[in-house]
Predict the 3D structure of the following.
Amino acid sequence: MSTAALRSILPTVGIPADRASEVKFSGETDPILPTPYRIGVAGAATLGATGIAAADLWELRSGKKQAIGVDVRHATASLRSGHYMKLGDGNVSHARNSIMGVYPTKDGRWSYVHANFPNHRAAALSVLGVPEDKAAVAKAVLNWNALDLEEAILAAKGAGGMVRTAAEWAQHPQAAAIAALPVMEIVKIADSAPEPLPPGNRPLSGVRVLDLTRVLAGPTCARTLAEHGADVMKITGAHLPNLGYQEWDTGHGKLSAQLDLRKSEDISTLHGLVKDADVFSQGYRPGTLGGRGLSPEELAKIRPGLVYVSLCAFSHAGPWASRRGFDTVVQTVSGITHRQAEVIPYKTPGPQFYPVSAIDYCTGYLMAFGAMEALRRRATEGGSWMVRISLAQVGKWIVDLGEVSGDAARAAGEEFTPAELELWSMTSQTPSGPLKHLKPVVQLSETPAFWARPSVPLGYHQPVWPARS
């Protein structure tokens, strides 16, 4: 099943589907965790795609092929890798904010309030007119119709959505826009001369990546590029809210610097970094960065040959193209949480999220796959390229993989064995102490994946490129 899923990905970027057989998938297949969705297959296939892209870059450098392996259970664990960290003697908390969740509404439906970030939490609370108290939120939501609350929270610059069934989502104009798109696209945005890969002994040696993404999907992309040798610089701002545990999870292999993109001098600093970069990865809504000189076309003029990776929630097409969203929001509005609760019984009533962040991590793996394929194209035919993807496109692809039987999903274990987790784990020495975390999943015979740098606190480095590795 993982091979078939990989076959569905490769042709979207012009790679023959039969190359999926180059990846050896091991371990059992879904259901691995209690969900009807084929999350293990999805994780393994998207990781397999990154393995093929890394192997292609190595072959371009050396003329040598290599074997690619993916353990499906390890791949599944990677879809919630933030759960398996320990910093020093204590676990890294991945708890969500207490008011984040799904609530019944006045019209007999359910509404999801996304409240992990303080700004989104404040937006929801301002609409509801209550303090940060779960009981007060539940009582206030009962005064709203679900669709009205969805629109009000979005208008207040918050995030969330009305729970829809899959059938309802299929009739939505945004679903129609997404259905007309492939799971991802690689688009040529400017001409430039072919540019050989920098010298080095890893697939992405000497390749410089600017990571302006946040939360999970985008940072996972840059983390994946780092595990194949890229020099990655995470750019965030001291004024931006963040979730500490996610930064430890996605920060492996990265430098971390801070800029304030509201300031012209910091935009100039970023442009200087772009001039010496190869990949620029961003996760802002379509059009958001255009007024700051950071659009794909603007940056391709500053750095001909740039690979621009663009992530958003609901794609660049359709009425929701500029709508704010996250993995959990996409699950909510597209019928996934409704179906999860329909198949798996829970102690609490209402729609439920599946037990991993499959859309987020799979999107990140596909972004990395696209970036590496675009770098291969730059090396062989030249040009500046944009990799375009959204959480909703990947969510649709996961749903389209089909479901396992309800009985099998309900019988699946809820956790991996301690022996498995120990086998898949490693310890990195960070500035804050030893961090135990999952290893890279993809196994390559010639260029084993690893992170050359540990995760660091945000803003730990200056916004200056080190010498190319």
The first helix runs from residue 2 to 9.
